[in-house]
Amino acid sequence: MLGVQIICEESGAPCPDHLTADGSSPLPPSSLYAKQRRTSDERAGEERRTLFFCVDRQCAKVRSVVQHPPHHHHHHHPPLLRSARAREARGDPQRTPARDVLWTADDSSSSSRDRSSPRLKDTLLLIPLSLGGHPLFAMTRLLASAFLLVLQTYAAPPEVIQSEFDITIDPLDPDSALPANFSGVLPSSPPPGTSKRAPHSIIIGVRKGGTRALLEMLDIHPEVAAAATEVHFFDWDENYAKGFEWYRELMPYSYPHQITVEKTPGYFTSALAPERICAMNSSIKLLLILRDPAERVISDYTQVYFNRLENHKPVQAIENLLVRNGALNTRYKAIQRSLYDIHMRNWLRHFPLEQIHIVDGDALIRDPLPELQKVERFLNLPPRIVSSNFYFNQTKGFYCIRSDGRERCLHESKGRPHPAVNSTVLQQLRSYLQEHNRTFFRLVKRTFDWQ
């Protein structure tokens, strides 16, 4: 029987980062758990919550809800879930959480509300899937979780549901949640004319370079269908062994005129990913977003620091990780990830430079539109992203997105303030990276304004 656990708000990414700071995995290879992602919209006074169910370290989006903050400290009624059938009735393909048009309990003006949709409170989304404790409580949680799994777009494999939740699903029943040829990922009913296709473009990295911002902003384009999760197909052996069809099933439904885009930041620093992606499609277009490598190191540290705090794990000052025995600790993984020239050489062994478009992550933060227009041209997309799609959030200090009649910002874990770093240590880091930066500039035949 599989171990079942709940993981909520582990990171800002929709799919949790299974690797800890030392590269190990805190999860067993065969585990079923849930993951919640929260995204706040200060202007609208809303908080978006997206639930993911994960099996065998692979996550799929289940449902998104929008919640208005309570006006008092008494009981607050959670929002309702919009049915997937409302989206399907409009003929929309499956979309990422950023593109869902959602409604809440007090959103009576919504014309797209499906009044037949399941009215599940979001407290149900947070029920711990624990097999321990009192048998009555355990059974209640399991039955509620099973009911939620059947209702949602994605679910665990049938053998997991039947063994863990003690329910029987008839694969021949047209209303059943699991088809007879179920292969591990539950598809929604596809809108007519859509299909799941291998990605036409992949955002390959770099970690903490702005990959999430790039995908969310690119997802504004009506001809882009973005995968909801970081798939880790080409860099994790256990996923790659599942085969190409497993990978394709994790892609969103798209129309023939759309292109599918997948994002996994770990690809750029993976030794195997370039060769594996080339074997799938040697003419694929790759997007690589980079920022000042020293700032990227600090951002990498900051994410791990806050993740460890949230998980009640001990933390270290950044100087203790950057310096060992009086010298720069070049074996520190955050530094290794910022050696762009080393990783780029590996990619250029398999792809010509013309197939790799480098997005300036620092410029994207300052002014998103010019960088996105370059991406549109690289992907041969008609120009659809305009300046009105962005607004500067004074509180957060970076640009947020306006599309589909909604305004949204990235998760609160994005844009966290960096810790102050000892100036001597920071100079050691920058000096070490300078030669690697110059080599990288020669490889890509362009320069960046990095210190």
UniProtKB/TrEMBL annotation:
Positions annotated to bind 3'-phosphoadenylyl sulfate: K208, G209, G210, T211, R212, R291, S299, Y399, K414, G415, R416, P417, H418
Name one cellular component (GO) term: Golgi lumen
Q: What is its EC number?
A: 2.8.2.-
Which Cys-Cys disulfides exist here?
C400-C409
Which GO terms of the molecular function aspect are on file?
[heparan sulfate]-glucosamine 3-sulfotransferase activity
Q: Where is the composition biased (Basic residues)?
A: 69-79
Q: Which residues form the Sulfotransferase domain?
A: 199-435
Q: Which reaction does it catalyse?
A: alpha-D-glucosaminyl-[heparan sulfate](n) + 3'-phosphoadenylyl sulfate = 3-sulfo-alpha-D-glucosaminyl-[heparan sulfate](n) + adenosine 3',5'-bisphosphate + H(+)
What the entry lists under InterPro entries is as follows: NST/OST, P-loop_NTPase, Sulfotransferase_dom
What's its job? Sulfotransferase that utilizes 3'-phospho-5'-adenylyl sulfate (PAPS) to catalyze the transfer of a sulfo group to position 3 of glucosamine residues in heparan. Catalyzes the rate limiting step in the biosynthesis of heparan sulfate (HSact). This modification is a crucial step in the biosynthesis of anticoagulant heparan sulfate as it completes the structure of the antithrombin pentasaccharide binding site.
Quote the protein name from its UniProt record: Sulfotransferase
**Organism encoding this protein:** Xyrichtys novacula
